[in-house]
Design brief:
With 339 residues, the protein is mainly alpha-helical. The protein has a domain of 154 residues. 86% of the residues lie in helices and 0% in strands. The protein is built from 13 helices and no strands. Helix 2 crosses helix 7, helix 3 crosses helix 7 and helix 8 runs antiparallel to helix 11. The chain is elongated and about 85 Å long. It starts with a helix and ends with a helix. The model has no long low-confidence stretch (mean pLDDT 77).
Length: 339
């Protein structure tokens, strides 16, 4: 090899090492960066409307950043903190649920086959639920203690999120265009790749994540209105289950328990939980996703679960995006390079 080739190799080795070290420097702030990107994607259409109104990118970004922090981030953080505080009473509350629960007479015929099914396996669900509840309570209580002990870090990440969100609104489009211009691919390949990856990311954030948050908020409101104990915790649980389209696994048992004390409120909560689940899956989610993502929902679901297992919380978004990128590259290969 000549001197120019050795110089190129040396340059790319140095560039790769510096890029890796830069990533390590930014790694502690990734939650704030990721949160800002998620919020930026969700509220980008609103930012564009505000920009047309004020005609000043700095003012529009400042307005949207302030509004997002005050109306979305702080309320959700407060609700999450309330849910963590309630975990201390999770096991005794569930024990009271199970001890005092009596299946309403008009539901015995419907639920009888299910009870007989578990009796045939000699499965006692009570200690299973209570042991799991104690385990979840201990882990979440420990998480709450850790978060309280790292309050300064949380505040710093909040500041990072706020500053990053401002620049995502103001300069996000230019940044994406700059990155796209430096990708060594032909324009006819870069365009579909960016559109599909962005469409999938928006489908996950707006169609899955935002829908789950909306379901959690609606179910929490139902729990508070009907007097369910640990309303914030069960609302958080409903949010997690809503990621899989199964929030009714939280609301239906709560409604059955409530029927033992107040049949009217129990029936209301049952209908409310079913209505919220049906509306979110068949109206809200399709409206938010639209035609942005062509990847089937089942594939999004499995790539999301695999991403969470492999990368943790960030895998919720990285998993579907990686699968989408693979499918897009596979299409480019079949079109341009297949022999």
């Amino acid at each position: 090899m000549d001197r120019a080739q050795w110089a190129a190799i040396f340059f790319f080795i140095c560039f790769g090492w510096i890029a890796y070290q830069t990533f390590r420097l930014a790694e502690p702030f990734l939650p704030g960066f990721l949160g800002a990107v998620i919020l930026g994607v969700i509220f980008l259409p609103l930012y564009q409307r505000v920009l047309r109104w004020v005609r000043n990118p700095n003012a529009a970004a400042a307005i949207l950043t302030t509004g997002t922090i005050l109306l979305a981030v702080l309320p959700m953080g407060w609700m999450g903190w309330m849910a963590l505080r309630e975990t201390e009473y999770l096991r005794p509350t569930l024990a009271g649920f199970i001890e005092n629960y009596r299946t309403p007479s008009y539901m015995v015929g419907l639920l009888g086959p299910i009870f007989h099914f578990f009796e045939g396996f000699h499965v006692d669900l009570k200690p299973l639920f209570l042991d799991k509840a104690a385990q979840v309570s201990g882990e979440l209580s420990s998480l709450g203690t850790q978060l309280a002990g790292h309050l300064l870090i949380m505040l710093f990440n909040g500041l990072i999120l706020m500053l990053t969100l401002f620049f995502v609104f103001r300069n996000g489009k230019k940044f994406v265009e700059t990155v796209l211009a430096n990708i060594p691919m032909s324009p006819q390949n870069k365009g579909p790749l960016l559109n599909r990856v962005y469409g999938t990311f928006r489908a996950v954030t707006a169609g899955v994540f935002v829908t789950a948050l909306a379901v959690g908020l609606a179910d929490t409101a139902g729990f508070l209105a009907t007097g369910i104990p640990l309303s914030f915790f069960f609302g958080l649980a409903a949010t997690v289950f809503a990621l899989l389209g199964a929030s009714v696994l939280i609301t239906i048992p709560a409604a059955f328990w409530l029927m033992n004390h107040n049949a009217g409120l129990g029936i209301f909560l049952l209908l409310w939980g079913i209505l919220v689940s049906v509306f979110s899956d068949h109206v809200l989610k399709p409206a938010l996703i639209g035609s942005k993502s062509r990847m089937p929902f089942l594939l999004i679901l499995f790539s999301t679960l695999g991403g969470i297992k492999l990368y943790g919380f960030t895998g919720l978004f990285l998993g579907p995006m990686l699968v989408t990128a693979f499918l897009t590259f596979w299409g480019i290969y079949r079109r341009n390079y297949k022999i």
